[in-house]
Amino acid sequence: MLFEVSVSELKRDLSGIINQAAYGKRRIVIGSRGKPKAAVISMEDLQLLESFGQEHSVRTRRMLALEAARTVRAETAARTADPLPDSTEDLQALREIRTDELSSLH
Predict the structure, then answer these.
(1) How far is 61 from 78, CA to CA, in rounded Å?
(2) What is the pLDDT of residues 77-90, one digit of tens each?
(3) Do residues 41 and 21 make contact, with C-beta atoms less than 8 angstroms apart?
């Protein structure tokens, strides 16, 4: 559960807020001028967050990048009247270059 505090509240009760995060398992969002600026979380949550980032395999990162590219392509196609070129041949050529480079390493 998220709890919100202002910077001035954080200054007044830093120790209490840290203890809420550390022992109360609270995730505390620090806001300033109505906008979230930072968060205080427990070490357990930080370790979980860091392990999540490390668990993303190369394949997962590539799949996410591919999905982002599809989104950009769709947005670009929606803004232009001309059809976008098919990039399949370009990608195949790049794969072949990469394969050649990798095979020369052995």
Answers:
(1) 26
(2) 888 888 877 788 88
(3) yes
- Which residues touch 9 (CB under 8 Å, ≥6 apart)? 17
Closest among 70, 94, 102, 96 to 84, alpha carbons compared = 70
Q: Which residue, 34, 39, 36, 45, is CA-closest to 17? A: 39
Question: Would you give the DSSP letter of residue 2?
Answer: E
- The CA distance from 3 to 32, in Å, is 14
- For the entire predicted model, the pTM comes to 0.49
The identity of residue 75, as a single letter, is E
Domains of the chain: 2-41 (3.40.1620)
The string of DSSP codes covering 9-74 is: HHHHTHHHHHHHHHHS--EEEEEETTEEEEEE--HHHHHHHHHHHHH--HHHHHHHHHHHHHHHHH
